[in-house]
Amino acid sequence: MRFTRALKTVAIGLALTASGAAIAQGGGRGQAEEMKKAETAAKAQENLKTLGGDIAPKLPPATVPADPQNIWDLDLSSGGRVRIQLRPDIAPGHVERIKELTRQGFYNGLKFHRVIPGFMAQGGDPKGDGTGGSPLPDLKAEFNPMPHLRGTVSMARAQAEDSANSQFFIVLLPRMQLDKKYTVFGRVIDGMQYVDAIAQGEPPANPTVILQASIESDGKAPVTAAPPPPAPAPSIIDTPAAPKPAAVKKPAPKKK
Which of 11, 17, 161, 206 yields a CA-CA distance of 20 to 30 A from 128? Predict the structure, then answer.
């Protein structure tokens, strides 16, 4: 009996020892796995730092500081100057095109040919019917996260995404369904009342005209009325005076 009890005690001791060893080994494997996970996470962080950014895309700021080199002034026949903050940070190619055409005088005298109440006012077409553009090549789309809110200025285009050229539109009321389908390149920061006063129609009967487009840093004074037509040059050749018509004598009344 004593021998049997001794054997049981030894067996229980061996079982406890084996169990403890197994638990110790299992804990060691868990620690190793945790260390590997930590190393993987550390490597991922290093890779992000090497790439220079986070995985999640950063949205552009809703507004930027006013910079005269990036403010587009439109003097309209509807009453005054509209100031538009250009956004080269989100649409550099389109902003560069606007500046180039503006400094060429391309937009001066062009009409707003399509103006839909509660939607938008479209201009920038030398033909005045929505089919024209500048001699420059069409632009590659620069769709961005900026929404089409009231005052947003976006580039018009045809069916093809890379078909924007010179035409643009100013949004009158929010139209979110246009987001990421048209390139937003600016927003009105002053003079929206003159945009609201643009003559409506497709086309309007008496369209509003861009009297002058300029980049604010160029320092052009506002134009508030269409310039009068130039006076005819005086002739240096004397023109003979027209002969006076001969007097016509009235016939004498007949005697009765």
Answer: 161
Beta strands in 29-175 (DSSP E): 71-76, 81-86, 112-116, 120-123, 152-155, 168-171
Q: Are residues 14 and 100 in the same domain?
A: no
* pLDDT tens digits, one per residue of 147-162: 999 999 999 999 999 9
Q: How many CB atoms sit inside 10 A of residue 103's CB?
A: 12
DSSP state of 97: H
Return the CA Rg of the chain.
Answer: 39
Residue 107: HSE in the Cβ half-sphere, 13 Å Cα cutoff: 27
Residue 242 in domain: no
What DSSP element (H or E) covers 26? helix 2-51
Supply 63's token pair.
Answer: 């507004």
Is there a single domain that holds both residue 130 and residue 198?
A: yes
State the residue range of the domain holding 38: 1-56
Q: Is 104 left (phi over 0), alpha (psi -120 to 50) or beta?
A: alpha
Residue 47 φ then ψ, to 5°: -65, -40
* Residue 241 included in any domain: no
User: 142 and 194 share a domain?
Assistant: yes
Residues 107 and 185 in one domain: yes
Same-domain pairing of 81 and 120: yes
Q: How many domains does one find in the chain?
A: 2
Residue 146 pLDDT: 97
The pLDDT confidence band at residue 228, using thresholds 50, 70 and 90, is low
